[in-house]
From TrEMBL, chains A, B:
The active site is at residues 276, 413. Belongs to the GPI family. This is Glucose-6-phosphate isomerase. It comes from the Bacteria. The lineage of its organism: Bacteria, Bacillati, Mycoplasmatota, Mollicutes, Entomoplasmatales. Catalyzes the reversible isomerization of glucose-6-phosphate to fructose-6-phosphate. The gene is pgi. HAMAP family: G6P_isomerase.
Amino acid sequence: MIKVNLDHSSLKTVELDNNKVKQIHEIIKTKSGAGNDFLGWIEWPEAFNKNEYDQMKKVANSLRSKIDILVTIGIGGSYLGIRAADEMIRGLNHSDKIKIIYSGHTMSSTYVAQLSEYLKGKKFGICVISKSGTTTEPGIAFRTLEKQLIEQSGIEKAKELIVAITDGSRGALKTLANKKGYLTFTIPNDIGGRFSVLTPVGIFPLLVAGINTDNIFKGAIKAKNNLVQNDLTNQAYKYAAARNALYNQGYKAEALVTYELQMQYINEWWKQLFGESEGKEGKGLFPTSMVFSTDLHSMGQWVQEGPRKVVFETIIKIQNPVGNLSVELDQDNYDGLNFLAGKSFHEINSVAIEGVIDAHVNAGKMPNIILEFEKMDDEQFGYLVYFFELAVAMSGYMMGINPFDQPGVEVYKQNMFKLLGKPGIK
Amino acid sequence: MIKVNLDHSSLKTVELDNNKVKQIHEIIKTKSGAGNDFLGWIEWPEAFNKNEYDQMKKVANSLRSKIDILVTIGIGGSYLGIRAADEMIRGLNHSDKIKIIYSGHTMSSTYVAQLSEYLKGKKFGICVISKSGTTTEPGIAFRTLEKQLIEQSGIEKAKELIVAITDGSRGALKTLANKKGYLTFTIPNDIGGRFSVLTPVGIFPLLVAGINTDNIFKGAIKAKNNLVQNDLTNQAYKYAAARNALYNQGYKAEALVTYELQMQYINEWWKQLFGESEGKEGKGLFPTSMVFSTDLHSMGQWVQEGPRKVVFETIIKIQNPVGNLSVELDQDNYDGLNFLAGKSFHEINSVAIEGVIDAHVNAGKMPNIILEFEKMDDEQFGYLVYFFELAVAMSGYMMGINPFDQPGVEVYKQNMFKLLGKPGIK
């Protein structure tokens, strides 16, 4: 569950446009807005292919018994969601036998060479993710690592260790996988990359990581059933309307703030979801991320006393910790922290959050939107994904743009292909 | 070496204020500006205590033979610089026996509990870093992990496995270490936290990580000797003047862009250095980070087509890769990427950078400052640190603030202490 608290946002209820929300709700529901070919994510938590899901579970289980490392090869929406889920649900220092390592999201020769060296002699598998199979970054990473895996495991064994997530019927990666005998799972045609983490793009690697994906779907379905109101009582719409109201007041950037290190890549995933959906036609809030307490001791000074009306903060506040410890009593009390003895870390962190909100909002005159979030687990991950996907649909339409395309991403690709002499490009 | 290229910045030379640069150079040189008690970093690369350095080397070597994991406990400047150096120099998938894990930079109970669980039965040491020893976040993390280490190793052995980096003569951590028999190294009084990575704060953990810190100092000295001009031919000043000129044109935020995953925490370190130095009195660029190619497929859309005159980009462009690989020729060429076969990843990445700069600057009308940077190694890390430290001194004075204090960081702490009932605070 996510509850939106605007008590510290400096917004008056009247500034949120309930009528516009109602109109756009109809547009989403009747699929009559711009980009309506890409609304597959709305029904997906219940509409996905159950046979394919069962098949994915079998393949993932078999893979878990054969490898120690899964290298996923993908970029953008084929990278951030997987990492966001894995780090949020398993945490940063987990003891599961399978480690996920990412590739295909960089062309750094140093990174690729070092990864290749690191994988020598290790038991690894590959999950390559690309709708077309012709994207340069994952394409050249796959060429390198596929060759290495075949050299290390032999060509027959490699067929059991490589899985492709790609288009269901055509494209370069589908053809390659069919010819070479690699299993494939399907990226739906009506769900864009940044909305794809609940499709096989995310679900297959997470199954290999040993994560309970049934619970992820359970959470997404719960969100789908909870977030049905056509007005501001719908919490996803309330968040969308609040950020739009601040945007209309002149704010340029929204900082998503977490107090949990393992949520850092949730913020990165959110940055793509909102930045790529809304940053067009000269519009859109610049999405940025802060991880507190770390960034209280780096960006905190700017937040407290820098220019106003540039950035506002949206805080994800966790209600229940997964693990908890209490501060030890120390007889000597050299550090003077005995006043905290017996208190749990979670209790202290919660108080810190209140103190920071008060400092930033009252002394700093910086609006804070609070998202009250239940817990960092599989089910709540599913809930969070659906919440933000619905919110960005509402928010993008409120801004007057098509939230489901990304025309600007092509410009650098065309430039690059031209400079690299790709056949047929001039 | 770092060379500043303004060809794509949309700035005319006349917009850079050479006279102001000359005036401020005198202020820095004669130590006559605001915050001049904290200019110790200027001479530090040559002025540091050689006896203490030799002692650190001995202790670090001994520690390397006894542990597999070094947990550093620190926040802000006692965290980001260490991680920035470790990841840039050793890379993300290195094979050195010592792993560094960070703590004390979060109060997340989930993180601390999971880390504690992870360390059970493992051979670990602790490097606790705090000038005062009373900062809450590292303080409570140290209480927890110190107890665990003593339980796992016994109280006598633990004395060899715990090192404190703290004030030279007083403070809670100094007292604690003396009483309990832990070795200490000194944080100089005239160097602030965000400028401290070349002091024992950074150098001791990096020695334990097996990094050649002699080379780091060599690079810092090279920068100190190179960056001596009193005008815009000084590359650090040129960068400072360029970002100030864009700030004066109305830009709100500067995105530091890297194409190397292992430079991600250089960007985080830079964010603290610039954000905490300049974000005061209602002034300062909001510092933010982007890691390409990843973020080309997330923030790229916003950068290409979002609002203008909000963000400008500063690109760190690496001249020479550490490792390099070439793209394999594939007989079948299903992915259509054979036009890249035989080209090195570094060559492709360099062309990609040109293509992106052209797309962002010409199609996107977004100014780009290019920092041409030699190589990701120990020596160049030292150079980079000194370059940015000198740049922020110039830049902060140009903005008319004291770049060496951080008054705003105290507000949340006071709030938190009040809410937590700290004795003597009301």
